[in-house]
């Protein structure tokens, strides 16, 4: 496997399939192997080598195969958060977020992080996949892509912040991805979970700035034979 060098922090998988942070000037060979839309095997240094084209980052190893006796597939639990806006909207993440996300297998952040410390705090709970939003600074945009494609169990999930008016956002964001089962997005601060024309959409809302929503919120996504999600009010 090719050896990759970097002078930025990046995420890779350890021997247990968990994401860890490699420091500057670190060479690694155990990278997360993914496939692009042409089916070619590529190595993606998350946030740096993905470029503008969404790549496929697989977390399927976090979902165990079906039980050979019962035929049931164990669940994967994913914490979903967006629009944290720390420290502008709040000095830090609400403590309730850490309680809700305790025990999850993976955390998705759909952008407008603002302070990178938010990702560090979430990474203490579980591996984190994140994208940059319109309110994130240049440093975050250098570290994180604007969108990415993840393989969660048997489902293909698009992760992006979004940048359109709420009345057209889902339709426009869908054009940014190819064939996906679920799109996780933010930007509007308005929680949403539902299926539109065969694609599921999940907006967790914001844990710090509800804007026009009735409450601050995050979401819990469950991956198994089917997709299910719960908007969790803070």
Quick structural gist:
The chain is mainly β.
Strand arrangement within the widest β-sheet reads 7-11-12-13-15-14
CATH topology: Purple Acid Phosphatase, chain A, domain 2
Query: Order of helices and strands, N to C?
Result: EEEEEEEEHEHEHEEHEEEEE
Largest sheet: 6 strands, mixed
Strand content: 25-35%
N-C termini distance: 45 Å
Continuous helix count: 4
- Find the CATH superfamily: Metallo-dependent phosphatases
Radius of gyration: 17 Å
Question: What's the helix and strand layout?
Answer:
Elements: E1 4-6, E2 10-13, E3 19-22, E4 26-28, E5 33-35, E6 41-43, E7 56-58, E8 76-81, H1 95-100, E9 106-109, H2 117-123, E10 128-130, H3 138-143, E11 147-152, E12 155-160, H4 169-174, E13 182-184, E14 192-196, E15 199-203, E16 217-223, E17 227-233
Parallel strand pairs: 7-11, 8-9, 9-10, 12-13, 13-15
Antiparallel strand pairs: 1-4, 2-3, 5-6, 8-16, 11-12, 14-15, 16-17
Task: Provide a descriptive summary of the structure in words.
This protein has 234 residues and is mainly β. The protein has one domain: Purple Acid Phosphatase, chain A, domain 2. It is built from four helices and 17 strands. A six-stranded mixed beta sheet has the order 7-11-12-13-15-14. Strands 10-9-8-16-17 form a five-stranded mixed beta sheet, covered by helices on one side. Strands 1-4 form a two-stranded antiparallel sheet. Residues 1-55 have low confidence and may be disordered.
């Amino acid at each position: 496997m090719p050896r990759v060098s970097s002078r930025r922090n990046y995420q890779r998988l350890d021997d247990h399939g968990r994401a860890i942070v490699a420091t500057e000037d670190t060479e690694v060979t155990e990278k997360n192997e993914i496939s692009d839309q042409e089916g070619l095997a590529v190595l993606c240094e998350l946030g740096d080598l993905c470029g503008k084209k969404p790549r496929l980052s697989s977390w399927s190893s976090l979902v165990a195969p079906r039980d050979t006796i019962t035929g049931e597939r164990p669940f994967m639990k994913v914490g979903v958060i967006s629009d944290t806006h720390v420290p502008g909207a709040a000095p830090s993440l609400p403590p309730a977020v850490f309680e809700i996300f305790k025990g999850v297998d993976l955390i998705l952040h759909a952008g407008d992080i603002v302070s990178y410390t938010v990702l560090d705090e979430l990474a203490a709970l579980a591996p984190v996949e994140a994208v940059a939003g319109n309110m994130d600074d240049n440093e975050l945009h250098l570290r994180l892509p604007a969108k990415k494609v993840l393989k969660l169990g048997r489902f293909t999930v698009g992760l992006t912040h979004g940048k359109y008016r709420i009345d057209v956002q889902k339709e426009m964001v869908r054009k940014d991805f190819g064939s996906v089962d679920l799109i996780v997005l933010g930007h509007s601060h308005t929680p949403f979970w539902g299926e539109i024309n065969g694609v599921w959409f999940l907006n967790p809302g914001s844990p710090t700035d509800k804007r026009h929503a009735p409450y601050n919120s995050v979401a819990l996504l469950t991956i198994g034979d089917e997709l299910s999600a719960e908007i969790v009010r803070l």
